[in-house]
From TrEMBL:
<dbReference type="Pfam" id="PF24068">
    <property type="entry name" value="TPD1_C"/>
</dbReference>
<dbReference type="InterPro" id="IPR040361">
    <property type="entry name" value="TPD1"/>
</dbReference>
<dbReference type="GO" id="GO:0001709">
    <property type="term" value="P:cell fate determination"/>
</dbReference>
<protein>
    <submittedName>
        <fullName>Uncharacterized protein</fullName>
    </submittedName>
</protein>
<keyword id="KW-0732">Signal</keyword>
<feature type="signal peptide">
    <location>
        <begin position="1"/>
        <end position="23"/>
    </location>
</feature>
Length: 124
């Protein structure tokens, strides 16, 4: 009986570890979604946009970089939320973005900038 219990426990443990690894293999920068919506407000005559960056992966993703070519704003964005580094932007100061906990910021400029996920690191 004890031997059977050990085998069942080992199988359950293996299954949990296998599926956790499976989740991380399926996750990547493609699970980072960027949604930009116009708020209807204007700042210094420029339309304001609200950006929501979400992680649709059960594993946290850190070191998230977006392609942000030409990003500019008349409304300051906290560098803890978005740091411009050339044509890329570091999100959330490199800290993990967890599923269900989006990073949100607003900016104002004549046209919205395409913010495209480039790379990230998976942490399961």
């Amino acid at each position: 009986m004890a031997a059977n219990l050990k085998i069942v426990f080992a199988l359950v443990l293996f299954s949990l570890l296998y599926h956790q690894g499976e989740s991380s293999n399926k996750c990547g920068v493609t699970n980072i979604k960027v949604e930009t919506k116009r708020t209807g407000n204007t700042i210094e005559g420029q339309p304001e946009y609200k950006v929501m960056i979400t992680n649709n992966c059960p594993c946290a993703q850190s070191g998230v970089y977006l392609r942000c070519l030409g990003f500019s704003t008349v409304q300051p964005v906290s560098p803890g939320v978005l740091q411009i580094k050339g044509d890329s932007c570091l999100v959330n100061n490199g800290r993990p973005i967890r599923q269900g906990k989006p990073v949100v910021f607003k900016y104002s400029f004549l046209q919205p900038t395409d913010l495209i996920p480039q790379r990230s690191q998976i942490s399961c």
